[in-house]
Each structure stands twice: as structure tokens, then as C-alpha cells.
Amino acid sequence: MSGTADSNYLFSFVHSAKLIGVASSGLLSGYLFSASTSTVPALLTARVPADKLARVWNDQYAQAWSLARPSIWVASFAFAFASYQRYTNTPALTNATNAVRRSNVFVHYTGLSEVVQLAIASSLVISVVPITTFFLEPTYNKRLELAAMSMEASRSKETSTVKVAILDEYAVKEDVKGWAYVNSVRAAVLGAGFFVGLLSL
After folding, report:
1. Per residue in 4-42, pLDDT tens?
2. In this structure, how many other beta carbons lie within 10 angstroms of the beta carbon of residue 139?
3. Which residue, 79, 74, 92, is CA-closest to 11?
4. What is the pLDDT of residue 87?
């Protein structure tokens, strides 16, 4: 009885980790995707001036990233933890997960184990960090943040020379469009991690 109780407890613990990973990655994927498909197009079609567009984008990005950063780590760690527990406690979890494993479409069609499935989900989620670091921060983020700062600097001056010299409306809008595209890729990668993790439930 004790062994059965332990295996059921462990199964519940691992299942909870999966749920946390799925919920975190799914919500964040939807949030990022809505930013690219709803927020950014609305700003661009509203014909917002370049200086205000840069400021609004900067505020929106700061808010989104403050939510995204912890969610990414929580989801990735949850999937990784579940994968590790399935790897190290396979005998104890076998009986408790037989029915679940038979209904796991990913395992059935790929021939991979649930351990690998959860590791893939974890890797997909955490890969958003290097995508942000190498494709967003050095380019779009840096230029748009400088544009937003230049607007703030111009407010404290008697003339708007600095703003006019730095901010180019076309360039700012193109940067926002480029950011939205790469952000959509981040959302898609997170969505893939969410889907792979979801199939393990």
C-alpha cells in the first residue's frame, strides 16, 4: 500500500509541474502574440507620431517583459522538473501513468519517451531568452529605447532639435514592425512548448 501511495503522490506532484508549465507557457504565448497582432497594428494604424509611438512601445515592452521573464523561467523549470522526475522515478511512476502514456499522442507518433517530450517543451520555452538576447535587444529594443529616451530629453529643452535629429518617423515605425515580427516568433516558439507540454497531460 505504501508503495502505491508513494507512486500516486509522485504522479500528482509531476502532473502539477506539468500543469504549471502548460499554464505559464500558454498564457505567455497568447500575451506576446496579442502584442504583435493587436497592440502594435493598433498603434501603427492610429498614425501615432514617432516620438509618442516610441514612448508607448517602450512602456508596453517594459510591462510585457516584467511578466514574461519570470513566466519563462517558471514554465521551463516546471517542464524540466517533470522530465527529471520521470527519468529518475520511472519504475515508481510506471503503474500510475500507464493510462496517461497510452493516450499521449506525442509519444505514440514520435516514438520518443515522455522524458524527452518534457525536455523538448522545457527547451522550447527557455529558447525565448536567447531569441530576445540576440535578435531583439541589440537591434529593435536598443533603437526604440534610444528613441523613447530622446523624446524625454527633448521635453526638458526649449527646442525640439534633439528629437527631430534622432527620431525618424519611418525608421521608428519600421523598427516597431520588425519588433512585432520577432515577437511573433517568440510567441510561436512558446506556443510550440505549450503544445508539446499539453500533450503530456
Report:
1. 555 666 778 888 999 999 999 999 999 999 999 998 898
2. 14
3. 92
4. 85
